[in-house]
Write the structure tokens for this entry.
Amino acid sequence: MKQIFFLAFSLAFFLSSCKPPVGGPVEGTFWKLTYMNGAIPEGVEVNAVFDNGKVTGKGVCNRYFADYEIDGGKLKIGPVGATKMMCPDEATLEGQYFGILSKALTFSVRGETLSVQCEGAKLRFVKGEDGDASQSGS
């Protein structure tokens, strides 16, 4: 009887740790950043596209890229590489975004919204228009 209970408990634990992401896939969609521990200033566009283990997009003024791994609802993003264009007006915001993105822990998709929980921060994106995908740099 103890063995059956142990096997049932082990199976339940294993299945709960392998949950798929909440709400749907993150990959293959053009995402626009709308929140980074607060509202994004008007006129600033930051985006991301997750595809085949690479996240690419545009920061405030530089294009960026990083490797990522998804395991259920867990998200791990490697160090962010970026172009080095001058970005005087919002350089701090871009640097913060790159730093936060590389500390991703989990994600969920609900409707048109992608939420990413990072170490010490939250990011929120919305699905972009179909024509926006050509602007992502990928």
